[in-house]
Structure formats: structure tokens, C-alpha cells
């Protein structure tokens, strides 16, 4: 994560966001969410979400492929 925003998106399956270091600033279904290092955040399938400015660090994204 490089402190730049990422536009809103949604997926047909749930998405797991694991912050290894730093901080992830999200907007999920219109609400701000902050995820710290060592925390895992699950975005439910079909939920609109975007990365807000200020996110920095290392993020692991796990998304199950559509069947």
C-alpha cells in the first residue's frame, strides 16, 4: 500500500484483507474502517469497498475465484 486511494469495487465472493505491517484505511458500504498490522478484515461478497488515502504498508489479499 502506497498511501494512494483505490477506487470503489465489489466482488462476487468474500475477500480477506490481512495487514502484515502498516495500516489499511477502507470505506466499506459507506463507513470508514481502519485495519492495523496483524489484523484481518473480511469484506462480504457483493459489498462495495474502497481504499482511502493514507493506507501504507504490506497487505495480503485473499479472494476465492468465482465458480
Features:
six-stranded antiparallel β-sheet, 67 residues, mainly beta, globular
In short:
The chain is mainly beta. The chain has strands at residues 6-9, 15-28, 31-36, 40-43, 49-51, 56-63.
Fold and architecture overview:
The protein is mainly beta. The protein has no helices and six strands. The model has no long low-confidence stretch (mean pLDDT 91).
The major beta sheet can be summarized as: 6 strands, antiparallel
Q: Strand fraction band?
A: over 45%
Name the poorly predicted regions: none
Q: What's the Cα radius of gyration?
A: 11 Å
Total strand segments: 6
Note the gap between the termini. 29 Å
Instruction: Give the helix/strand class.
Output: mainly beta
Overall geometry comes to globular
The whole-number mean of residue pLDDT values reads 91
Give the topology string: H per helix, E per strand. Answer: EEEEEE
By DSSP (H or I, 4+ residues per run), the number of helices equals 0
Helix percentage: under 10%
Amino acid at each position: 500500500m502506497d498511501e494512494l486511494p483505490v477506487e470503489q469495487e465489489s466482488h462476487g465472493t468474500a475477500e480477506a484483507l490481512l495487514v502484515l505491517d502498516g495500516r489499511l484505511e477502507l470505506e466499506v458500504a459507506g463507513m470508514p474502517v481502519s485495519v492495523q498490522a496483524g489484523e484481518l478484515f473480511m469484506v462480504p461478497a457483493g459489498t462495495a469497498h474502497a481504499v482511502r488515502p493514507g493506507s501504507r504498508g504490506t497487505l495480503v489479499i485473499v479472494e476465492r475465484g468465482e465458480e
